Model the fold of this input.
Amino acid sequence: MTAHHIDGKALSQHVQDEIGKATALLKEAYGKTPTLTVVLVGEDPASQVYVRSKIKATEACGLHSLEHRLPASASEEMVKGLVRDLSQSDDVDGILVQLPLPDHISSHAVINAIAPEKDVDGLTEISAGRLALGKPGLHPCTPTGCVMLAKQALGELTGKHVVIIGRSILVGRPAAQLFLAENCTVTIAHSKTDDLPAVCRQADILVPAVGRPQFVQGDWIKPGATVIDVGINRIDAPEKGAGKTRLVGDVDFDSAQAVAGHITPVPGGVGPMTIACLMRNTLLAACARRGWQIPDPQNEPA
Ligand code: GUN
Done:
């Protein structure tokens, strides 16, 4: 068996196309465009790449993009002050503080300075609490993308056993809540789980989110299972030439695709969906805060 590859790039593009259409309709109806503000502190090279692709996608969807860059030496008070100002600004619909922050800054304190209605990353305590209680709100982007990819592969998810590897605030925990909301049975495995391969073999849907390159092996996967690989790890690639690198997931792709039914590639799987869901949250945040309805294009005069 060779697993069907779930095309995250194509699904992301589809979602972003729909957001672009909705943004144009909102501009016509209300004369305004939702604005996403990204805050980047320091010079972390991976964060700079992520922020660049988020800004590019924002502009491609026709949304407004604002960027605030602060030096790595910025104090926690400075970053919190900026986030509070953005939270109060009527011109800003979504605020994203790129993580990780420099070690001397509490990401918890900074994230919780974001007004919950502008929390497009879904990481404030209010957003996490709403998700845990099954209340409407803004949900974290990467886990939302994982659910969309699983639905793309399988359709209805009710009754599926999902095993998530990793209990992070950014991915593992919210992913568990979102799959639970789809009527899945959810197991959160982690670094202290006994006999992790055996737990993984129970999964209809396996979601590794541990940040360990090629960690999950093909013989950890139930034949025919769906694998949603959250990992994005850069490793040396001497086969491409001296000093070259390549991106791999948390899954050993070659052994996994021989067993799985569906699998997301890295790159081109979960990564693009994170960005699509960020665009979606920006649109949702703007509509909720401003009381906008997305006009139905079918009801527009020809
Ligand atoms: N750093 C890595 N992934 C993310 C993410 O989804 N949101 C934020 N804010 N920072 C990140």
